[in-house]
Amino acid sequence: MNGQVARMRNVAQISPGIWAGFTDAATGNLAFHVGDEAAAVAARRTALNHELAALLGTDVNLAYMNQVHGSTVAHVGGGHRPARINPAVDVPTADALVAAGGPAAGRGLAVMVADCVPVVLGGHSSLGEPVVAVAHAGRQGVELNVVAAVVAQMRAAGARNIAAQLGPSVCGGCYEVPAALRRSVGARVPEAFATTSWGTPALDLPAAVTAQLAQLGIGAVGPQACTMEDPRWFSHRRSQRGAWPEGRFIGFVAAAPHARPIRQDNLGSTDPGGLFPS
Ligand SMILES: [Zn+2]
Hints:
Elements: E1 11-15, E2 18-22, H1 38-56, E3 73-75, E4 96-100, H2 102-107, E5 109-113, E6 117-124, E7 130-137, H3 139-144, H4 146-156, E8 160-166, H5 179-188, E9 193-195, E10 201-203, H6 205-215, E11 220-221, H7 236-241, E12 249-255
Parallel strand pairs: 3-4, 8-11
Antiparallel strand pairs: 1-2, 2-12, 4-7, 5-12, 6-7, 6-8, 9-10
Bound molecules: zinc ion (ZN).
């Protein structure tokens, strides 16, 4: 990572002209599938697009996906969807997205999470064309090595010097699983084998994804926080245990060669409805 922290919290240039970041609970829920009001979700997504466009100096229209804990990679083109298409329905069923070339990469990609590992990636072809990608790596995504699938597609699109960033996700000290599951996942990805802070079997998904990327020669930055421990982000497991609202934040990446960092500390401040409008 180049370390050029932008005006928006959690947004950084991960490769020259490629910007990535993570929203948080203050931005509000960005998923249609968690029981939230669809109009409110759509409004938050639109506000985020506008905010990112203003930040990055390019037209942003983040592409989302219908995530199913698999390893399917979908390719996103550069066209903007007509308004009549329902964004809650008309998205690819996949757990990773790739966009190659200026118009497609500039549109931007999003991955929704609330404990699973959001992975954002960027690189360039030998001609300097940006190739960006996102991946959703939960326990099943780690077992299926979804990051290897998406990196293969990025490289097939010509990407070199791929940089990756992992966003807030449940840590190995919190993600308790049955001993048999730790054994089977750990047999496949040894770095996943972990123990909770209270001494029971656990999985360390961020460590596993970092190791899977390292095997591909890709260094990863992050995550900077554990979703279960830090209420600034949504956590599915924390929501199930208590009164925390269910929601999803996103990791996003977009090519914006002319973006100029300025300071702004409240991503999503234009959110019209807060976390969950009543
Ligand atoms: Zn934790």
